[in-house]
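Q: Convert this sequence to structure tokens.
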Amino acid sequence: MDEKVYVFEGKTSTEAIEKGLNELKVSKSKVDIKILEPEDKRSFFSILTPRVVKVEMKIKEGVDLKAEEKEETKKEARKEFKSSEPIDNTESIENIKKFLEEFISKLPNGNLKYNVFEEDNIIKVDITGDDTGYLIGYRGEVLNSIQTLISNIASKSSKEKSRVVVNIGGYRERREKDLQNLAMKIAGTVVRTKKSITLEPMSAYERKVIHTKLQENDKVKTYSIGEEPYRKVVVALK
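A:
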């Protein structure tokens, strides 16, 4: 039995509780929760200061924290990394190709080329050519929008949601290296300060890069919080 009391912070009680459950790797039914600072406790002079809500969590009697952590870790791993069941993407790929033919023909730079193929049950779209920056956008915002559009086109031809990854001008490779470097820097900061760090919202693909890079790190752990499209990765001490 674990008698220790834990305190977690967030902008709302919901965020603080979610952060606590993720860090402790337990379900809500396994802990007693007490809100230390109610969300509506705000004075006139503190209205401009960041809102911080604290919650206290205590493991219930008879709960084996280590056993719960192992089970929750398994669930998180399955959620983030488990591949979907194989599906027939033949029609989806053909529809993507038809869309790309028309889409590229209407762009200012008509010299772009594309390749659509399937790998590990994922439909991959690779677009190459000169001056593709406007199709990528700031931190891949335009690229991700194009990926969402193509994903919707692919899924219309399938009973299940097709998994699609779009790469333009080699951006994914560059971004992956940047995220891997970021993951290592964040891990170092967490170890040094002994404080968890929540990253900015990322796509499922980018979150997976962070998780994968740090999953073998013996000093930190990662998990995701929030709902799409604002889901974030948290890096915390083990």
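The first helix runs from residue 13 to 24.
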